[in-house]
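Q: Hi! First time doing this. I have a protein sequence and I read that you can turn it into a structure. Is that right? Here it is:
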Amino acid sequence: MDMLFDLGLENEVTDLRDRLRNHFGDLTYGVIRSPIGALVKSIISCRTKDEVSLRAYDRLVAAWPDWHDMAAAGPVTVGAIIQDVTLAEREAGYVCAVLKRIGDSHPDFNLDFLGREPVGRAIAWLERLPGVGRKVSAATLNFSTLQRPALVIDTHVQRVMQRIGLVSASATIEAAYDQVMPALSGWSAADLSQLHVLVKRLGQFNCHAGAPDCLHCPLASVCKTHRSMTRGRA
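A: Yes, that's right. Below is the predicted 3D structure, encoded as structure tokens:
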């Protein structure tokens, strides 16, 4: 299904979204945080279940309600608080480094200025921070009070998009974002947030990293991978 940058890509994504909404319901993202809160939460959620990273984040802000104090606590202390997340020591280092960098230039930790920048420029600013890639930068913009139109692509969303054929099978998260977002330029932040939630849910419950559950997948009839698997068994 070669439709990268195709004018029909928006229709394909809209159909995907509608099928998933009919299957899972009208899901929406959970807690909307400040931009700095969304940034820290997204950093520690890498390859970690949502419930685990959420508890870790809650422990962090309970221990250090002030971002300056969290940065000064240091990676070892922060790492001990978030020890149940994946690669806790590395993520703690990123949290402290990011907070220190932001605190040096914006002592109030107010990132509302990103809401006045073009999305591409805001993403570029965030991705100059230590350990911040496209998933974290998009989450900071979309899942926060900034409510910017940036699609959050995590490993679940990336896998589903690759298997369906929306992006190339080898597309990185950054490449997938760059391939899909131009077709969704008219979508609101809420539209893109819901798309993320729905596609991620499919990746968690049907389109697993191992053997996908195609039998119960609402996208099976439009999935490139499923069609190729079906032909292979014929």
